[in-house]
Amino acid sequence: MAKTYYEDIDVGATEEFGAYEVTREELLDFAGKYDPQPFHLDEDAAKRSVFGSLCTSGWHTCAMTMRMLVDHMRETGFAGLGSPGIDNIRWKKPVFPGDVLSVRTKVAEKRESQSRPNLGLVKSDYDVKNQKGEVVMTMTTNVMVAKRPA
Question: Which pTM does this prediction carry?
Fold first, then answer.
């Protein structure tokens, strides 16, 4: 399979991918392990909350997004080498059981690494959307990408 290296990435390029269905079972499992707040675990408490219904943890939304990103990297042969971090994450709307999430990404900038000549750094903006096209989460990521071998 062809690889997508640092040199192949263009600033301004966009991609859309993913289709991750949020299940009630997964929502409850994640919340029970990592974010056991009442509006993530208890139907009655969730109804009385600002969300009005059982909803995912924002961290669960991040995890589902990561899954879609890794699947997409595998499908495209993206030569990613990990990430030094995320600049920001914003949870714009709650995510509910039955929602189907997808991702839109745009390359914001790229630069060659000063300390590692075999890689570059790519900053991208992400919109995670539900099946209605509503943006439920945004984030800006930084990724290390391998340069094409000589």
Answer: 0.93
* CA distance between the termini of the chain: 18
Q: Is 81 left (phi over 0), alpha (psi -120 to 50) or beta?
A: alpha
Q: Kindly give, in sequence order, each residue whose CB lies less than 8 Å from that of residue 127, ignoring residues fewer than 6 positions away.
A: 103, 104, 105, 135, 137, 138
Query: What are 75's two structure tokens?
Result: 């499908």
Number of domains in the chain: 1
Give yes or no for a contact between 4 and 146, defined as CB atoms under 8 angstroms apart.
Answer: no
Query: Percent of the chain beyond pLDDT 70?
Result: 99
CATH number at residue 130: 3.10.129.10
Question: How many of the other CB atoms lie within 10 Å of CB of 126?
Answer: 19
Can you state the angle between helices 24-34 and 58-76, rounded to 10 degrees? 110
The amino acid at 1? M
